[in-house]
Structures are given as structure tokens and as C-alpha cells.
Amino acid sequence: MRYGLLVLGAPFSSQAPHSALRFVDALFKEGHQLEGIFFHHDGVFNASTHLGEMPPHEALYKQWCELSVNHGASLDVCVSAAMQRGLINIKEARRQQLDWHNVAPPFELTGIGQLVDLQNRCERFISFAP
Amino acid sequence: METHASLLPTTLIVLRHSPHCGRWLAEGLDLALVSAVFGQEVKLLFMGQGIFGLIQNQHDAVGQPLSTSAVLDTVGMYGINELLVPKSDLISLGIDQNDLMVDVSVIDDAKVRAYLANAGHVLTF
To answer: How high is the ipTM of this complex?
Structure first.
């Protein structure tokens, strides 16, 4: 079965991303597929490269990246929610003439349309909220 | 003739936070509008503190009308016509249906369960 996940919690204040990764482990063990993960609300902090370099969050960041590299899962981040929280990728940084960015591949800043598309590609779509 | 949109599963967006509690309500409503634009059939279920988003004449810290109230005024234009409120939550919060700014369907707990069970997707904000 094809699964998609919506993650709405930050790694530093919520169990949601940790639960989502445990769920992913379980669905792979049961032979299911993971199409992608959409990060919205405070879940966008999971895409922060700064948090990804900082203990104890670096292990979580690495696990998200491995889902993309090893399983081809998309890691889409709501661009609106991300920018409200000071998270931007290199493309947005150039557009705004900033010399820093804190979102990098395999995380991609996308719109809600990607979430709708992911929902419609999956047979099961699960929310992980605080 | 059936439209493509009618073949898509219903998205039930559950709103559980008051408008003054971070960006939960605002981002849940944004998601509802964009999903509707992309052809999804969207229903909104206001639960618990989320019902406070429906109270009339609310203002932010600088006295401006709440932006979420303006959004709620427009959901009908996006084809979102089912706004659901559990009767048990209205009673426990002491809110009269007449105090709400938009027309809602007040439903009992059995119907809440049915809406959750029958939705193709349930997204909780």
C-alpha cells in the first residue's frame, strides 16, 4: 500500500516527528511503500539544516534524509509555513538577496498543491500532529 | 455528468485551536482554501477550542479584525459549504450557536464519528 505522511510538529517540542519515523519503520517492515512526507506548521523545523547539525536533532535530520536517498520518498516543506518561521532555501535566499539559507535538498520548499497531489497519489495519508 | 472533483475523496480538516493560539487555525484554513482550489471536496470540523475561531467580532492585539474571520467569510466562495461543530463542544464551552459568525451544522457525537470515518483524508490542525 502507498503511504504519505503529514508532519506538523517540530523536533524540539513535539513527539510527532519521532512517532512519524517509527511509523515509517513499521510500514517498511510490513512491505508498504512511502511516497512522501509533507511538513507543515511547526513540522517545517524538521527541514532546518541548522537544527540538523545540532545535537540531539542531527540523528532525526539524518533519518529524514535517508528516507529520500534510500527509499525515494519526497520531503516537501510548505513554503508559506517555512518562511513564516525563518526557513528558506538557496533559491529564496538569492531572490531576497540574503547570504544565508537553512533548507537544503533533499528537503524542497513547495506549495500546498504538492500536499494535495501527495494525498491523491497515496492510498493512506496519515497526520502526525502535536 | 460527474466532475473529476466529485471522484476525489473528501478532505475533512479538523480545527482544534483558537485563533489566538499560534498559527494553527490560520494555516489550517489556508490549507482548506488551497485544497478547494485544487478541486478537493473540503469540509471543516471545528472541535474544542477551534470553535473560538467562529465567534463574531474578534480582534487581534492591535485592534484589527482577525484575519481568520475574514477567511471564514470567504470559504463559501471556495465551495466549502460544510462547517461542522459538535454540539457537545458548544455545550461544554457555553457558546450559543447564535454567537457564531457563519452558518454551521451542529452535529452530535455519533455524526462526528461518522464524518471522521467517511472522510477520505483527515487533516488535524
So the answer is: 0.85
